[in-house]
Amino acid sequence: MFLGVGVGYLIRKVKGVGLVSMTTMLTIIVLLFIMGGEIGGNRQVMRNMASLGGEALVIAVAATLGSVVAARYVYKYWFRRRGGDNAQ
């Protein structure tokens, strides 16, 4: 990854590098479309979609709440003390 960042930094002014971003996005869209087709064609997955969706919802809510708690902690203990702002 660091090598990729370095190479990207070095070639950032080369003409046509912006094309890489567009082709990457198109490739991701095509892969997601194919993956959706594969999932839709799998009968076992489609039969269990309700329970899988419920589990995904629980995981998403837990991850969001965990992120909010962590962000509040970081803000409270790292940023508020430095500025001396004690207002809630």
> How would you sum up the global shape?
flat
Judged by helices, strands and strand pairing, the structural class is: mainly alpha
Give the number of helices: 4
Distance between the termini: 40 Å
- Average pLDDT for all residues: 87
CA radius of gyration is 22 Å
- What string gives the helices and strands in order? HHHH
How many strands, which pairing sense, and closed or not: the largest β-sheet?
none
Total number of beta strands: 0
Proportion of strand residues: under 5%
**Helix content range of the residues, please?**
over 70%
What is the count of structural domains?
2
User: Low-confidence parts lasting 5 or more residues at pLDDT below 50?
Assistant: none
